[in-house]
Specification:
Distance between the termini: 22 Å
Radius of gyration: 18 Å
Strand content: 5-15%
Number of domains: 2
CATH topology of the largest domain: Glutathione S-transferase Yfyf (Class Pi), Chain A, domain 2
CATH architecture of the largest domain: Up-down Bundle
Strand order of the largest sheet: 4-3-1-2-5-6
Largest sheet: 6 strands, mixed
Helix content: 55-70%
Number of strands: 6
Order of helices and strands: EHEHEEHHHHHHHHHHHEE
CATH class of the largest domain: Mainly Alpha
Length: about 270
């Protein structure tokens, strides 16, 4: 059996969701991260037009797109430890919560983060991202670094419409509403469904990663843009924020993998 391959975007919270599942199930895999902007063409090619973005996981000879579909396939292929509850009603609820956070949190926290990153004076926010995603050899070339930053800003502006102030305001409301839902579902419990970690916990914590930036996650976004930090600051005292930190501490383990930089062919441990 060939080793599994995860095509991913290091900075993406949806990709963190799958990286976490692979780590939890201790699935040995290789990681590939094409240059920014090229991933949509790669995703379309890998999935024969079914998905236009990452993550895409090559598992047992087939390419699977979409984080929810990938976790479903992992659950079938590597059932231990389980992410789906055994009880049918608990499973239904866990999958319902996965869908809620996927749809009502994920796109909005992404839009808000990119809105604030691209709004930083002088492009400092996107420069920092470019430094993380570019291969080291290219990072040292000033014009390449500047072009990557400019392209990144233009790409997210078109792809996610991040320069729309109205959409950013709605995103702030959606993120807070998702945190409200998380806390309401948790109550005094440690887990969203039942008495053990499930796909509901995994999804909520992963998609709130940009809000909390726990050290156990992918170390790409190491600092928040100032305006995003202002939005986050009053949320730090909330139980949901502390729950994300604690969930990462308890359950986010490093995976056995190799990350390949497609543009250079070099690899590094991750």
């Amino acid at each position: 059996m060939s080793k599994s391959v995860l095509w991913h975007i290091p900075v993406s919270h949806y990709n963190e969701k799958v990286r976490w599942a692979l780590a939890l199930k201790r699935v040995e895999h290789e990681r590939r991260a094409p240059p920014p902007g090229a991933h949509m063409a790669v995703a379309l090619w890998l999935t024969r037009g079914a998905c236009k973005t990452f993550p895409v996981l090559r598992l047992d000879g087939r390419n699977i797109g979409d984080s929810t579909a990938i976790i479903a396939a992992l659950e079938q292929r590597f059932p231990d430890p389980p992410l789906y509850p055994d009880d049918p009603e608990q499973r239904r609820r866990a999958l319902e919560l996965e869908d809620f956070f996927d749809e009502e949190l994920g796109p909005h926290i992404r839009l808000l983060a990119w809105h604030e990153i691209t709004a930083e004076p002088g492009g400092d926010g996107m420069d920092a991202i470019s430094d993380e995603v570019l291969p080291e050899a290219l990072r040292r070339i000033g014009p390449v670094r500047a072009a990557a930053s400019a392209f990144g800003s233009a790409y997210v502006a078109v792809r996610f419409r991040v320069r729309d102030a109205g959409r950013a305001a709605l995103a702030r409301t959606k993120v807070v509403a998702a945190l409200d839902r998380l806390e309401a579902e948790l109550g005094d419990d440690q887990h969203l469904v039942g008495d053990r970690f499930s796909v509901a916990d995994l999804t909520a914590a992963s998609l709130l990663y940009p809000l909390v930036l726990p050290p156990e996650g992918a170390q790409v976004l190491v600092t928040m843009p100032p305006r995003f930090a202002e939005f986050v600051e009053p949320l730090r005292a909330r139980p949901g924020y502390a729950w994300v930190e604690e969930t990462f501490r308890r359950y986010r383990e490093p995976a056995t993998s190799t990350t390949a930089s497609i543009s250079t062919g070099t690899s590094k441990g991750s």
